[in-house]
Specification:
With 386 residues, the chain is α/β, with parallel strands linked by helices. The protein has 2 domains: 152 residues, VC0802-like; 201 residues, 3-Layer(aba) Sandwich (Rossmann fold). It has 11 helices and 14 strands.
Length: 386
């Protein structure tokens, strides 16, 4: 099967997580840049990464790249690309997004207009027509321009991969599903260890953890743009990829994943979301204030997204909340705590310096992912004897 370059964008700061995920799925990485990973794959890779990636934003087919210092360069470079290999005569095509950094061309609307004209002119010559009805399947194009280098790609995904389909109801300022999954993957948590989110909101962290524990592919219950592109990804490839994902599901019997929130209506929403995701039996949701945070188990994990300034709380309320959180986790002295927040005073309020912190972006908000490491648990045999 023919191979091609594929591009998977992701949250800035999480490229290494996505790289490891693509590598684990069996594909060779060709380049890692800020916010995206490029790899070599075939039609099967398009289907499998869309269905299986927990951390990518989408999967793009790289059409080509060139340098453009003027709109004439952009036009000629775009026109030179082999669009006819991807877009049929009746295809509906447009530049859905243009992003430019440190480049002479920076107006998204002008970039989109020039590239559309170049694509039309190329396909007019190929298909020997002066008019396209564009009443067929959709072929959205995305372009990145960085230091005058233009990268042009076709979007196989459609709606972003973070939209798993289970989160019909959300709390205020929910964390994106793929960001939550990536943060879990940054920790040593495994499904045989306790996981608690004391600020669970709509349940994203517990649900993403439960999907991992059960081996449920995040895209198993949704469709993708390229499902309609039979000349690029045949139907039997999609069928096999979905079948592989269904056969990989294995519901564990001994998982301990819990989510708490102070708002009963939010907990009800989290339960509904977990049911839609097919993992409600793996998660215990409970209305509980952070001041009552406790657990009888040892060597557990807290992975959470507590409220911070951009989430409609006053400074004094935030400080008090983090102080209470710090007091409670001191009682869980064998536990490891992982927390994403933009609150600069988090460590001071909690009375504890993080062992590690990583700069990340949650949407447009700059945040830190703090790691407070607990002791390593004894080996399984020693735990069983104890």
């Amino acid at each position: 099967m023919n191979t091609m370059e594929l591009i998977a964008p992701c949250h800035f700061g999480l490229e290494a997580v996505l790289k490891r995920e693509i590598d684990d799925l069996g594909y060779d990485i060709s380049e890692v840049r800020d916010g995206r990973v490029t790899f070599i794959g075939d039609a099967e890779a398009i289907a499998r990464i869309n269905i299986w990636s927990r951390t990518a934003e989408r999967v793009l087919i790289k059409i080509g790249s060139f340098f453009a210092y003027s709109f004439e360069d952009l036009y000629q470079g775009t026109k030179a690309l082999a669009w006819e290999e991807y877009i049929p005569r009746d295809g509906r095509f447009w530049v859905t997004k243009a992003a430019s950094v440190d480049s002479k061309l920076f107006s998204p609307s002008d970039i989109q207009s020039v590239m559309k004209k170049a694509m039309v002119d190329r396909l007019k010559d190929i298909y020997h027509t002066n008019w396209f009805e564009e009443d067929g399947k959709d072929y959205p194009v995305r372009v990145f321009i960085h230091k005058d280098e233009v990268t042009v790609a076709l979007d196989t995904t459609g709606e972003s991969l973070h939209k798993r389909g289970y989160r019909k109801l959300t709390a205020k300022a929910p964390i994106a599903e793929n960001l939550a999954a990536a943060l879990i993957m940054l920790t040593p948590w495994k499904s045989d260890r306790i996981l608690v989110d004391p600020f669970c909101g709509s349940g994203t962290f517990p649900i993403e953890a439960a999907l991992m524990a059960a081996g449920i592919a995040p895209g198993l219950k949704r469709k993708f743009r390229a499902c309609d592109w039979e000349h690029i990804v045949p139907k039997d490839i999609w069928k096999d990829a979905y079948e592989e994902a269904r056969e990989s599901v294995s519901m564990p019997s001994d998982v301990d994943i819990q989510g708490y929130d102070i708002d009963e209506s939010v907990i009800a929403s989290a339960r509904d979301n977990a049911a839609l995701a097919g993992v409600s039996e793996l998660i215990h949701f409970q209305k509980r204030d952070v001041k009552d945070l406790s657990h009888h188990g040892k060597y557990g994990f807290i992975i959470t997204n507590p409220p911070y300034g951009e989430r409609l709380m006053k400074d004094e309320e935030i400080s008090s909340l983090y102080t209470t959180f710090g007091e409670r986790i001191k009682l869980l002295d064998t536990w490891s705590v992982y927390m994403i927040t933009s609150y600069a005073g988090a460590e001071a309020a909690m009375g504890r310096k993080a062992d590690k912190n990583r700069k990340l972006y949650n949407g447009m908000i700059q945040t830190r992912f703090y790691s407070f490491m607990g002791p390593k648990p004894p080996k399984r045999a020693d735990r069983d004897r104890a």
